[in-house]
Each structure stands twice: as structure tokens, then as C-alpha cells.
Amino acid sequence: MDRYNELVELINLANYEYHILDNPTTLTDAEYDNYLRELYKIEEDHPDWVRSDSPTHKIGGVILDKFEKVTHNIPMMSLSDVFNEDELIEFDKRIKKEGINPKYVCELKIDGLSVSLKYENGVLVSGATRGDGVTGEDITHNVKTIKQVPLKLSKPIDIEVRGEIYMSKSTLEKLNKEREENGEPLLKNCRNAAAGSVRQLDSKVAAKRNLEVWIYHLPDPEDYGIKTHEEALEFMADLGFRVNPNNKLVNSIDEVIEFINEKNELRPSLPYDIDGVVIKVNDLDDHEKLGNTIRYPKWACAYKFPAEVVQTKLKDIKFTVGRTGQVTPNAILEPVMVMGSLISKATLHNEEYCITKDIRVGDTVRIIKAGDVIPRVESVVLEMRKENSTPFEFVKTCPICGSDLIKRDAAYYCVNEACSKKDIEGLIHFVSRDTMNIDGFGDATLEDFYNLGFVKKISDIYRLDNYKEELKLIEGFGEKSITNLLDSIEESKKNSLEKLLFALGIRYVGKKTAKILAKEFGDIDNLKITTYDRLNSIYDVGEVIAQSVVDYFKDENNLKLIDELKELGLNMTYLGKEVSEETIFTGKTFVLTGTLDSITRDDAKEKIESLGGNCSGSVSKKTNVVIAGHDAGSKLSKALELGIEIWDEEKFLEMLK
After folding, report:
1. Burial of residue 87, with CB atoms counted within 10 A of its CB: 0-12 exposed, 13-18 middle, 19 or more buried
2. What is the pLDDT of residue 541?
3. Given CB 3.0 to 4.6 Å as the disulfide criterion, which of 59, 203, 235, 644 pairs with 141?
4. Do 363 and 380 meet the contact criterion of CB atoms below 8 Å apart?
């Protein structure tokens, strides 16, 4: 057993030197191979000895039936994108308006897949994808096969770090050569290849794909006494994580622009794909001061490099109608590959866009993927235009119902309430994942059901079981798929009020606003009778949304729909956590810092919230209590400065009792 433990430590050190430091000194290649064979033999003879940080896990061998869901305690937020120097300068101005004179850390934006890694007592316990930012997928079995992911850290601490899994250009080239020889379809680009590899149920497949990782974010730096993002990167590197050597601390937005230009030129020579540069304010106190939107931190942004441009023919312009009635022109293109994706359609936005760029059917156009994601017609190749081409004209009537269009600002709308396309788009929105989340309803399926007369309005969704026999006659709908669909419809009736409010399509009421309204009013009946002034007084609602909500509940058709949905059994109340009796935690804000011995941080937060308290990630004047464990950092210091009540672990456990 002593020899086994010695081999694990020795090989892990060699892996760290080779894959993290890029400076192997401990073992020669031959020694490494011999020791690894010896380790395998010991583990084969003594399977009960196998350590969780054994380097043999890097080879893979776990096969899952499915991926389990993982909830991120601190959401994995996206970054706001900027595309030019003007937008960068505007980002800098917004920060300086807050009285901050920032230094920035510039990092290469790796084109890969975001990952969260968690360690307990210094040992890797889980790896998860970003998912929707709140809920990801457990990919621990595949993360362990990535050679740059340490299975054990240099210090026995609890920590979560975040980074980017990617595939190098040379690995993709080698992999595609093998696939070509085997008659398999080629992988289109490094990012898609990395994402597909990480989501393999068989970890041996993932292990063969030679994935790599860079670590770039520490969600809770204050817990470790860290005051800047640069310090956080150094701290993670000292623990054994692979941190990109191209990161740079700069003093101004001009130096940020210099860094971007330099790395854009360097881009082709890098061994991995990058699609931009991430810019982060260095001082962590400034992070707290700037805060976040619902999706993005205000202290960071991602500059996207100019996208790859390709040329193709614009075959036609089709007009589509959205759920609000807005009519949008869309380019129908000769299919063309852009950044690894086959593009055959692109949005043309509105009338002004088409006229300004003088876009005409039959033109040869330049296509880019804006932000490397959304295809867009960038410009026309005028020298290739035919003499008899016809200038663009926006349609005057709705392409679906033929009604005259009305222009509002830069957009045209169909205002015919009976327009079927508006109804279909409204139905599609109602069943989507972010709203009522009804599985089995694709866009095409809903359109078919509409045309067949099964679902003409929202309430018809909950009467679909009346057509069970008719559904069996539709191609692709067997007994099982029909049962699953009807079960999902029934399950959606239990959704909390905020889901329904967002699903109803009230103008300007998005996901965040729906949650605010649901929490504030508790029941849809309370919301129906509220006033404009009451709504306008709510933080994050404002005049425009307030008027829209009032107008919605004045409409008799909308009130009739809500009554129908009530009768059909849909929940109309907010189902957020409620505490039936007051406790010492009720209404107070708590901050956890340091390490607790007898309870995990997740369990501690859950218990506090179940007893009516709130948990925050930072200390401020609004904080009531700081719960301090071992190695408490700057949060404890700040609490002492502000005179905030402090509990140690013993007192916290006593209060829980």
C-alpha cells in the first residue's frame, strides 16, 4: 500500500509538470510508462485500494445511462458581447461613471465548453457543464479523463473553479484523419468536437479525444482573502490548475485595445481556437459595486473578433410573422458553410436594413456569423449584381392573412387579431422551455395541430386529450409519444405563477419581470386588479411595463382566457418558498465565509432559506449576520469593520436547533 500511494503521488506530480507547467523534470517517458504499468497491476490486485485521485482515472472506463442534472449554487453567467472599439470605450465609460478608475485583466476567449469543477478537502468531487446557467449536467466521469484537470490539489481545501474545455487544432486534425479512414463523418470544428466529446456517456471515448482545459474564474474569491482577479488567477495556478499564460493586467482601455489587436494577429498561430478577448475589472470590490444584470456581470465583457466572411447567392426574400405580429424579412440563401455551420437562411432585420444595404433578390452577398453565432447578411457584392435586378420593397400586406400592415417605429406589424401565424407563434411561445415547458410540442407539431383544428388557442392545449384517437392517425405519433405529450401537458398545470405570466405573452413582460410580479402579488387575481401606480412603484418594473400589464388585464378576451385556464386546473399562484412561522432567520440576510466542518455550504444555505432567511455572496450594510468558518477571509474583515453580527459554526448550529 505504501508503494501504491508513492506511485500515485509520483505520477500525479509528473502529470502536473508535463500538462500544467509544460516542464517535465521528475520522470523520463520510459520511467513514466513503467510506473504507470506498475500502478495498474497494483490496482488490479487490490481494487479496494483505488484512490479517487489515481492517475488511472485519466484513461476513462465509466459508462453512464444518462447525465444527471446539477444545480449551480452561484449561477454561471454569460458575458455581454462587444464587437468594436466604440463599444469597448462605451463599456469603459459606464464603469468610470460609477466613480471607478479601473485596471483590467485581459484573457483569451477560448472557443470551447464552459465547465465548473468542485473540490472537497482538495480532491475533485464533481464537474458540470454550464447548461442554462442555473442547471447543468454532471460530466465528472469525463472531466477526470482530461489530463490538465488535477484530481488532487496542492492544498486540502474546499473550492469551486470554472474554466473552458477545448480541443486543440492538431487533435481535431488527427481525429478527423482517423474518422476519414474509418468512413465516419468528420467533426466540423474544435468547439463542436469538444462539446460532443464531453457529452459522451462512455468516458473511454472522451479519454481518447485528448481534451484540454484552461481555468479562468474563482466564484468565491473573498473566501480565500483574495482582493483582485489577478490574485485569483495566481491562487488557482498555485493550487495546481492550468491558467492561460497569455492573461495580462493592463491600466487603461487603450491598452485593452492594444492587447486585442496583438492577439488577433497571433490568433492563427495559436494551437487552439479563440473567438475573442475577455475583459474583466481587476478589483473585486469594484465587482460588488458594479453588480450584475439578470444575465451578465457589469464588470466584464467579451470582445468578439470579426467573424469569418463568405459569399453566396441570395435566392429569395421571405417575410415571416412573429407572435407580436411583427413582420420580418429573411434571406433565403444558396447553402454555404460559415464557421463550421451550413447556413441557408439569415435575418434581414427590417426595411431600413435592406434599403440601406441595397439588398436585392439575385445578389451575391457576404455572410458573417455575428458573434460567431447568428448568421447575418453583411453586405452586397455590387460588382456581381445583374443589370435587371429589382430594388427591395417591403410587403404592404400580411403574408399569412392578407391584412394591411401598420408601421410602428422601424418595424411593420399585422394588427389582425385573427391572423393565424400570430396565434401559432403565441402557442409556440406558451409551450417553450422557459415558459410552461411542455415536452413533445415542436414548432412544426403545433402548426400541424393548429391547421388540423386541434389547438386554435392556448386553452385548447389543455383539451388536447379530447383528440387522443385522432392524434394516433398523425404520422410519428404513437401511443407512447401521445401519452408522454398529454402527461407533460398535465404536469405543466402545476407550474408556479411566474411561468404562466411569461407564457401569456404580455408585452414587455419577460422571464425576470414575470418572477418579480409573481412574488410581489402572489396570485393572478391580485395582479388583475392592481393599478398602474402600484406597478410603477415596484423596483425593476417602470412605466412602460406597468402600462402594458394594466392594458393586458383590461382586455376582456385576456380575462376570459385566464378564467378558462383556471377552470382547466392551472395553478395561478406563486409557489416560491414560504415560511409558516417566524424564526430567528426570518427576513434576515446571511453571508457564509470560510470552511464549516459539520455541514456543507450548500446545506447551510438551504437550511437558512427554509427558515425564512436570505443568503448573499457579499457583505454590505444590508447584511444581518456573517457565519464564519475556518480560514474566513475578507468577508469577515469587512463584517468587523461594519459592526455586523458574527456567528461561528457552533452558534450557527445552535440557532438551527
Report:
1. middle
2. 85
3. 203
4. yes
The closest of 156, 138, 151 to 198, measured between CA atoms, is 138
Name residues whose C-beta falls within 8 Å of residue 83's C-beta, 6 or more positions apart in sequence: 303, 304, 306, 370, 371
Residue among 462, 439, 426, 89 nearest 279 (CA) = 89
The rounded distance, in Å, linking the Cα atoms of 466 and 454 is 9
Residue 4 CB partners (closer than 8 Å, separation 6+): 39, 42, 43, 46, 49
Q: Taking a C-beta distance cutoff of 8 angstroms, is the pair 617, 590 a contact? A: no
Give the residue carrying C-alpha cell 484530481. 151
Residues constituting the chain: 657
- What are the φ and ψ backbone dihedral angles of 633, each rounded to 5 degrees? -105, -130
457 catalytically annotated: no
pLDDT tens sequence across 524-538: 999 999 999 999 888
pLDDT band at 370, cuts 50/70/90?
Answer: low
Dihedral sign, Cα of residue 596, residue 598, residue 602, residue 603: negative
Around 169, how many Cα atoms within 13 Å sit in the side-chain half-sphere?
Answer: 9
Residue 604 corresponds to which cell in the numbers above? 447551510
Q: Quick one: which of 496, 489, 503 has its CA closest to 429?
A: 503
Average pLDDT over residues 316-326: 84
* 104: CB partners within 8 A, 6+ apart: 249, 250, 253, 255, 256, 279, 280, 281, 282
Secondary structure of residue 532 in the 3-state scheme = helix
What percent of the chain lies above the pLDDT cut of 90? Answer: 50
DSSP secondary-structure letter at 292?
B
Distance from the first to the final alpha carbon of the chain: 43
Kindly report the pTM of this predicted structure.
0.53
Catalytic residue among 58, 109, 248, 638: 109
- Write the DSSP assignment of 164-225 as a string of letters: EEE--HHHHHHHHHHHHHTTPPPP--HHHHHHHHHT-SBHHHHHHTT-EEEEEE-S-GGGGT
**Neighbouring residues of 593: CB distance < 8 A, sequence distance ≥ 6:** 222, 223, 626, 627, 628, 629, 632, 633, 635, 636
Which of 92-101, 253-262, 607-616 shows the lowest mean pLDDT across its residues?
A: 607-616
| Higher-confidence position of 581 and 203 | 203
Q: What is the mean pLDDT of residues 433-455?
A: 84
